[in-house]
């Protein structure tokens, strides 16, 4: 039996370049060749349509699709606009969680929910600049990549 493979996750946004830059800086990823920002003052046709980021190994992909209008998710309330999808990001210590917190805020994200003091699963939920909720949580060290 043949199964499809997840190729990428796509986020709609009214500012593809701005949201791609937020996640590029937050995650330390790089643009797919040809999607890099243009020289200052130059047109940015890709940035007004579709952009893709790649993880350091080039295997995980996060894409950004330009749309004209996007209502912001109302999480934690489910009305009027539920989140429908969110990204779960992981770190392996509370210190890393705190360092990421500062970076998220500096890059333009907003804190939506703080459970960083939870002894079982410290986490924070943020809204990215387009309003998409995402989580950063502390995973057990045993789940860290080798």
Structure explained in plain terms:
By secondary structure, the protein is α/β, with parallel strands linked by helices. Helices cover about 20% and strands about 25% of the residues. It has 2 helices and 8 strands, in the order E-H-E-E-E-E-H-E-E-E. The strands form 2 sheets. A 4-stranded mixed sheet has the order 1-4-3-2, with helices on one face.
Helix run count: 2
Which stretches are low in confidence, meaning pLDDT under 50 for 5 or more residues running?
A: none
Shape: globular
Average pLDDT rating: 90
Taken in chain order, the helices and strands follow as EHEEEEHEEE
β content, as a range? Answer: 25-35%
Strand sequence of the main sheet, in spatial order? 1-4-3-2
Rg of Cα set: 16 Å
Give the biggest beta sheet: 4 strands, mixed
Summarize the structure.
The chain has 146 residues and is of the alpha/beta class. The chain has two helices and eight strands, in the order βαββββαβββ.
Please render the helix and strand layout as text.
Elements: E1 9-13, H1 16-27, E2 30-31, E3 50-54, E4 61-66, E5 87-91, H2 94-107, E6 110-115, E7 123-127, E8 133-138
Parallel strand pairs: 1-4, 5-8
Antiparallel strand pairs: 2-3, 3-4, 6-7, 7-8
């Amino acid at each position: 039996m043949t199964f499809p493979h997840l190729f990428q996750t796509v986020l709609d946004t009214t500012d593809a370049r701005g949201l791609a830059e937020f996640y590029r800086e937050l995650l330390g990823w790089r643009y797919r060749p040809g999607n890099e920002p243009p020289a200052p003052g130059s047109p940015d046709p890709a940035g007004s349509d579709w952009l893709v980021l790649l993880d350091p190994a080039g295997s995980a992909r996060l894409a950004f699709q330009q749309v004209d209008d996007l209502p912001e998710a109302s999480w934690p309330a489910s009305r009027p606009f539920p989140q429908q999808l969110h990204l779960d990001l992981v770190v392996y210590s509370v210190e890393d969680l705190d360092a990421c917190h500062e970076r998220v805020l500096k890059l333009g994200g907003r804190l939506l929910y703080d459970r960083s003091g939870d002894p079982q699963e410290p986490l924070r939920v943020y809204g990215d600049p387009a309003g998409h909720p995402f989580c950063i949580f502390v995973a057990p060290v045993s789940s860290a990549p080798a």
